[in-house]
Write a structure and sequence with these properties.
59% of the residues lie in helices and 9% in strands. It is of the alpha+beta class. One of its GO terms (cellular component) is peroxisome.
């Protein structure tokens, strides 16, 4: 503008002209700044090469439960006939899964059920190892111990533990978790199965009132289950015109097959859900009940009981509080899915990264072909994913620790934190893993399409992780709702719980204008500073929270609460994801600081920086829209993230080797052999 003024007014004083020109050039330099960009690359080029000890990093990653995982791997390594083959029918896979579970428990001496309550972290470590052998086995084990066994232990009382614990533990009592119905999955309060108390016989009568109330997708039901924890509406007889009172959803132990003959019990109908997209080693079935009578003692009565004369007692005053307490005790399933999903991501990243290091394609004229991981496009596909895998690992480790602490303390504030974190991490991580499995397959080209290389099996088996234990979209809405609740609490002067503490400070920062000075800082030291990274993540969350709260208030006046929520739904989902990303980064930064080995800490810092800057760059529009990041800084973030991607590539083999997965778990020729060696193995397998 100033240069336009000069030309329109004609020649000016030469000193004045020079001053204006220099001022304009300086302003342009703040945006273009090629000198500082070159300086950034020179600084990055001086970055010391990191020497990574795979053993030291693996020891830090896998921690105190490494031994129990090695015991699982050693058992299956010693029993190759129990390793799941690539080609197997549904019925054969189901029987193999049962043999795997029974063998692991009775021969291998691994007793997961003993850790479900007393040491959940150890249980989840076993689950990760088992799931990496065969995801169907991991789910079947989860149904037996976490769902069926967990419901008995967590929702029942001492009499139930005494009667069922040993049978569940040694798999003499294989069981099911019958919550989901044909017409109701996420909306558990809408379940229609009824359990009516009969005071004359001291029994409950379990009934499926209509087709929509048939229990559906019930694991272990089609073939192996002998018991089911059935969630049903407890109906008590009254002496008024209503005849019965609905006391809400409760859990009941219902025998579904005879212990000796394995025949279906009277009044119980069982149907096979058939072949699925994945997890065909799990025998999902449908259950229908026609006036099935069970003893009154089969009510899992921790939160509500019925006396011999039909009187109801509970320490919790309302149906909603009892319902919340019941579901709160089942949060372990979500914790396990988030943790297991990271295990699946590890397998895929290991296979794809190793292949990309070995596979050579094209190169400079008259020179050897180069590794495809030397291509920037391949680095950008896989290295941020590898960084995310590390980030998710530490985040879910923290979640497991909090869950273990919750099971011991029963602290109400901690219960709320674990509920929010498990919902958010399960939704975020399983969605990310599902997308990444396809990316890994594509990154391995045609070889990735071979079944032996596991991507198709992993993708199909993992896909349902996004749905069971809570649909991901529903879970993210729960997180958004809790954020809004904390937001209202902040402005009422209330105390924020641990998970949400950062909102108090970052909301204050958001309500102020972005600092025009720090918005332009672009040095490598600043961009790799964890304080800048975490502040940026939290600022985005606070901004989203503030803006969606205003939108909801505006739309609720014309659309009502439900309509306003639906109008802002995508905004709310983005808010929840942003909050979870902030939490993940926070735990990653803590893990870097706590790493005792200097070289491992340097490697983790590099990976953490890539995770943070890649995420910031992916949402750079949000930061630019409010001038939180100036144009020159945005460009510097992009360039540094790109260079960190290259640096992580240089230690990629050590990083994936630190996951320390056995060869038969990552049993992909493309991940351990050159393509020509893999081809030789393929031809041998098919008889050429």
């Amino acid at each position: 503008m100033e240069l336009q003024k000069i030309s329109s007014k004609g020649p000016q004083n030469s000193e004045e002209t020079a001053e204006l020109v220099n001022r304009r050039i300086n302003l342009l330099t703040l945006h273009l700044n090629p000198v500082q960009e070159l300086e950034l690359l020179r600084c990055a080029g001086k970055m010391k090469a990191i020497k990574v000890s795979t053993e030291a990093l693996s020891e830090y990653m896998r921690g105190k439960h490494r031994d129990i995982q090695e015991k699982v791997f050693a058992y299956f390594n010693s029993r190759p006939e129990l390793q799941t083959p690539i080609e197997i029918s549904k019925d054969e896979h189901r029987e193999l899964c049962m043999k795997q579970l029974v063998g692991l428990v009775r021969e291998g001496g691994i007793r997961p059920f003993r850790y479900v309550v007393d040491d959940p972290a150890k249980y989840f470590a076993i689950a990760e190892a088992v799931g990496s052998v065969d995801m169907s086995l991991g789910i079947k084990m989860g149904v037996q111990y976490s769902l069926w066994g967990g419901s008995v232990i967590n929702l029942g009382t001492k009499k139930h533990r005494d009667k069922y614990f040993d049978g569940i533990d040694n798999v003499d009592y294989p069981g099911c978790f019958a919550m989901t119905e044909l017409h109701h999955g996420s909306n558990v309060q809408g379940l229609q199965t009824v359990a009516t108390f009969d005071p004359l016989t001291d029994e409950f009568i379990i009934d499926t009132p209509n087709d929509g109330a048939i229990k559906w997708w019930i694991g272990n039901a089609a073939v192996h289950g002998k018991f089911a924890t059935v969630f049903a509406r407890l109906m008590l007889p009254t002496h008024d015109t209503k005849g019965v009172t609905d006391m809400g959803v409760h859990a009941f132990i219902v025998p579904i097959r005879d212990m000796k003959t394995h025949k279906t019990m009277p009044g119980v109908e069982i149907h096979d859900c058939g072949h699925k997209v994945g997890l065909n080693g799990v025998d999902n079935g449908a259950l229908r009940f026609r006036s099935v009578r069970i003893p009154r003692d089969n009510l899992l009565n921790r939160f509500g009981d019925v006396s011999r004369d039909g009187r109801y007692t509970s320490s919790l005053p309302t149906i909603s509080k009892r319902f919340a307490a019941t579901l709160g005790e089942l949060v372990g399933g979500r914790v396990g899915l988030a943790y297991s999903s990271v295990g699946v991501l590890k397998i895929a990243v290991v296979i794809a990264t190793r292949y990309s290091l070995l596979r050579q394609q094209f190169g400079p004229p008259k020179q050897p072909e180069v590794s495809i991981l030397d291509y920037q496009s391949q680095q950008h596909k896989l290295m941020p994913m590898l960084a995310s895998t590390y980030a998710f690992h530490f985040a879910t480790l923290h979640l497991v620790e909090k869950y273990s602490e919750m099971k011991k303390s029963h602290d109400e504030e901690l219960i709320g934190d674990v509920h929010a974190l498990s919902a958010g991490l399960k939704a975020y991580i399983t969605s990310y893993t599902a997308k990444s499995l396809s990316t890994c397959r594509e990154a391995c080209g045609g070889h990735g399409y071979a079944a032996v290389n596991r991507f198709g099996i992993l993708r199909n088996d993992h896909d349902i992780f996004q749905t069971f234990e809570g649909d991901n979209t529903v879970l993210l809405q729960q997180v958004a709702g809790l954020l809004l609740k904390q937001y209202r609490e902040k402005f009422r002067g209330g105390t924020l719980t641990v998970t949400w503490n950062y909102l108090r400070q970052s909301m204050n920062s958001y309500l102020a204008q972005p600092n025009p000075v720090t918005a332009r800082w672009e040095s490598e030291e600043h961009l790799r500073n964890p304080n800048f990274q975490l502040d940026a993540f939290r600022y985005r969350t606070s901004r989203l929270l503030q803006s969606v709260a205003i939108r909801l208030q505006k739309h609720s006046k014309t659309l009502g609460g439900f309509g306003a929520w639906n109008r802002c739904l995508n905004h709310l989902l983005t808010l929840a994801e942003s909050h979870i990303e902030s939490f993940i980064l926070e735990k990653f930064i803590e893990a870097v600081k706590n790493c005792p080995d200097e070289n491992s800490r340097a490697a983790l810092k590099l990976v953490c920086d890539l995770y943070a800057l890649d995420r910031i760059w992916n949402d750079i529009g949000t930061y630019r829209n409010v001038d939180y990041v100036a144009p020159n800084k945005a460009k510097a973030i992009h360039k540094l993230a790109d260079y960190l991607c290259f640096q992580v590539k240089n230690i990629a083999r050590e990083l994936v080797d630190a996951f320390d997965l056995p060869d038969y778990v990552t049993r992909a020729p493309i991940g351990v052999q050159t393509p020509s060696e893999a081809y030789t193995q393929y031809t041998q397998n098919v008889g050429f």
